[in-house]
Every structure is written in C-alpha cells, then in structure tokens.
Amino acid sequence: MKHTRLFALAVVLASLPLTLAISGSNSTYDFLRTDVGARAGALAGSFVTITNDPATIFYNPAGLGTLEEPMGSLGFFKHLLDINSGYATYSQPISDLGHFGVGVLYVNYGSFDETDDFGNKTGNTFSASDLAFSLGYSNTIDENLYWGANAKFIYSSIAGEKSTGLAADLGILYTIPESNVTLGASLRNLGTQLTSYLSTKENLPVDFVVGASVVPKGIPLLLNLNFHKLNEEAKTFGDRFKAFSIGGEFTLSRVLQARVGYSNEQRQELKTGASAGLAGFSGGIGITVKEYKVDYALSSLGSIGALHRITIGAIF
C-alpha cells in the first residue's frame, strides 16, 4: 500500500513540468471547458475525483475504471439566450480487458443575423455549433490505483466555416478506502486542430486539474476540492491556484441527494463593481430510484442570469 501511494504521488509530480509548460489560454473549442451533466454542474465542476459515474469520461477518464456495472446517462443544458447543449455517455467493463466508454457532447448556439462590414443587416442568417466525440479506456495499475485515457474528435462550424481537431485526455485516480479519500489528476484536451476555420490554427483549451475528495467520518457528505488550469501562466505562485472549485454532495436518503458548489474563477470573472451576487455558486438535487437517476442543477451567473441542467442516468 505504501508503494502504491508513493507511485501515485510520483506520477502526479512528474506531470507538473510538462503541464506547466503548456498554455491553455487564447484557445479555440472553449465549449470543451463547459461542465457536462447536472451532477457536475451542481458541484461547480469539482469532478476529477468522482467515482462510479459515467460522466467522468468528460473530466477524468480514469474514473471509468471505478464503474461497477454498465452505466449510461444523457443530459440537456439550457444556457443563456438561444444556446442549448446536450450530451450522452455509456460505459461498461469487459472481463480481463478493462473499462470502455463513449461520450458525445453537442452545443448549438442558435441563429444570428448576418451583417456586412459596416454592421448593416443583409437579411440572411447563419448558425454555429460544436461537437466532440470521445472514446475512453481505463484500467488498474495497482490496487485502488486507476489510469485512463480518451481519444477525442472535435468538429465545429460557424457561418459555413468548419474546423476539426483531435485531442487526448489522460487521467489518474487513487482511492484510499480506509480513509474515505480519493485523489485524482487529469490532463484534458491535449491535441491540435486538423483544419482551421480560416488560415490560422489555434491552440486547444488544455486543462491540468488536480483534486481530492473525502467523506468525513460520521457525516453523509462527499466533499470535493479541485484546482483547475494549473498549466496556465500566472503572475505569482498563489495566483496559479485561484481557479479552484468546491463541491459538496449530501446523501439525505437512499433516494435523495442534495448538492452545492462554488467556482472561485467564475465568481471573479462575473464580479460587477464590488458585488458579484450569487455568481459562482451552484446547487441541485439527485433522485435515485432503483437503477434510474434524475439530476437537476442550477448555476448562478449573478446579475447575468442562471444556467439549468438536467440529466437522466441508468444502470444496465
């Protein structure tokens, strides 16, 4: 057990020099940063150490290895204005081979009025949309230590212009059952554009996330802490850790779960003057009936509005 812990720590530390050198700023395909699923949205995106949930394919593919049975989920995301998004995912273990999963994420941005160079409407409209398809795999390295990887194809279109890309997600997850602690790290969207919208290729939104979760003794609470964008440049060492999120999931009964979350980065970005209202805070509920689950989440954007997510999941 001691060697396993040291190995997990060594893998995470070895990743730091590489990821700190990769910038995810000024990138394209930013829809890949959007929280997927109502449970993740309610927890403010603190999902890198979540286990036994098929939506982990979008956050940390190593989490697929913790699924105990074939599971799937699909969800709808109502954004501001006419922006809508949906996803579907399915994963199952295959004896002696490991855990496999697939995930699809789609965003439609609605219709826009076309204008000329002077801002005059031409009478025509155009649309924009994004699509990402992920194929994931996870297996164990040692007892309670999981690794995972995704291969991801990305397609985006706007006003007749199209772009495609390929990316990979890498992840590691370590559970400590005797302490009810889980540690995890993932490196997401590591790849390149195959074809660009015009003539210039752009970077992908690379994101290195490290997190931990714990179930305090005697309390039916799953508490998560994630640090996001650790690969991006920062003015000071402390600034590098400002993009953090915290999530708590209370198990009220076998049927009902209540969730709350806080995203520090989102709150800072949405602050208007000296006040940000409830920006950065989120909440939701989960209902489990036998092999079915329904989750709902509301995420506040302060004075701008709120986002709504709903997810339906099942064990097969």
Topology:
Elements: H1 2-20, H2 38-42, E1 71-78, E2 84-94, E3 98-115, E4 121-142, E5 145-158, E6 161-176, E7 181-195, E8 207-214, E9 221-227, E10 244-251, E11 256-263, H3 264-269, E12 281-289, E13 292-300, E14 306-315
Antiparallel strand pairs: 1-2, 1-14, 2-3, 3-4, 4-5, 5-6, 6-7, 7-8, 8-9, 9-10, 10-11, 11-12, 12-13, 13-14
Task: Note down, in words, how this protein is organized.
It is a single chain. The protein is mostly beta strands and 316 residues long. A 14-stranded antiparallel beta barrel has the order 1-2-3-4-5-6-7-8-9-10-11-12-13-14. Strand 1 and strand 2 form a beta hairpin. The N terminus is likely disordered.
Overall pLDDT: 88
Task: Look at the structure and name the CATH superfamily.
Answer: Outer membrane protein transport protein (OMPP1/FadL/TodX)
Q: What is the fold named in CATH at topology level?
A: Porin
Q: Which outline best applies?
A: globular
Order of helices and strands: HHEEEEEEEEEEEHEEE
Short description:
By secondary structure, the protein is mainly β. It contains three helices and 14 strands.
Task: Throw out a few tags for this protein.
Porin; 14-stranded antiparallel beta barrel; 9% helix; 3 helices
